[in-house]
Amino acid sequence: MAKKKFVKESATIMTEMVLPNDTNTLNNLMGGRLMHWLDVVAAIAAQKHSNRIVVTASADSISFKQPISLGNVVTLHAKVTRAFNSSMEVFIEVTAEDIPASKKTITHRAFFTFVAVDQNGKPIEIPEAIPETEEEKELYDGALRRRQLRLVLAKRMKPEDAVELKSIFNMDITK
Ligand SMILES: CC(C)(COP(=O)(O)OP(=O)(O)OC[C@H]1O[C@@H](n2cnc3c(N)ncnc32)[C@H](O)[C@@H]1OP(=O)(O)O)[C@@H](O)C(=O)NCCC(=O)NCCS
C-alpha cells in the first residue's frame, strides 16, 4: 500500500436534488437527510484515501444557518485534510443551487473523522495525506488542533496534552 497520497486523490463530489421525501413540513431539507449525505460523501473520500473499510468516529458540530429549499440542487465536495495513524479528518463543503434562479450559496462546512479498520473492525494504519494547494495546506495545519479538541471533548485526550490546541488560545485551557 502507498505510504503517502495527495489530498486531491480523495476528492469526492456528490450531487443530490432536494425532493419532497427529503423535506420537513416547511418544504426545506431535513437536517438528518443532509447529515446522511455528509456521512456518505465523507466516507467515500476516506475510502479513496485509505483503500480500506472506514467507520465514522465523529462528526464535528454542524449548525444549520439557512434552510435549503425543495427543488434545490445540493452539491457536497469532500476531501481528506490530514491522516494520522488509523484516523483521518474529512472536510466537506456544501452548496445549494437554485438553478432556475441562477443562485448558488455555500450553506455548510463540516469536518468528519473516519477510522480505517481491518476485516475485524480493528484500526489499521493509513497513508499520510500530502496537501498541495494553499487551501489544502491551511486545512492540513488546522487539522491537528481540531483533532486535539475533539479528542479532549471525547475524553480520549487529557487537556494538558493538547499542546497545539492550547497554543491558539495562548492560555492554559485546563484552568
Ligand atoms: C472508531 C473506532 C474504530 C475506534 O476504535 P478504538 O478501539 O477506540 O481505537 P483507538 O483508541 O486505537 O482509536 C483509533 C483511532 O480513532 C480515533 N478516534 C477514536 N474516537 C474518536 C473520536 N470520538 N473522534 C475522533 N477520533 C477518534 C483515535 O484518535 C485513533 O486515531 P489514530 O489511530 O489516528 O491515532 C471504534 O470506536 C468504533 O468502531 N466505533 C464505532 C464506529 C461506527 O460504528 N460508526 C458509525 C456510527 S453509527
UniProtKB/TrEMBL annotation:
It comes from the Bacteria. InterPro entries: Cytosol_ACT (IPR040170), HOTDOG_ACOT (IPR033120), HotDog_dom_sf (IPR029069), Thioestr_dom (IPR006683). SUPFAM superfamilies: Thioesterase/thiol ester dehydrase-isomerase. CDD domains: BFIT_BACH (cd03442). GO terms for biological process: acyl-CoA metabolic process. One of its GO terms (molecular function) is long-chain fatty acyl-CoA hydrolase activity. Keywords: Hydrolase. Residues 8-120 form the HotDog ACOT-type domain. The keyword S-adenosyl-L-methionine does not apply. The keyword DNA damage does not apply. GO terms for cellular component: cytoplasm. It holds the Pfam family 4HBT. Belongs to the acyl coenzyme A hydrolase family. This is Acyl-CoA hydrolase. It comes from Algoriphagus zhangzhouensis.
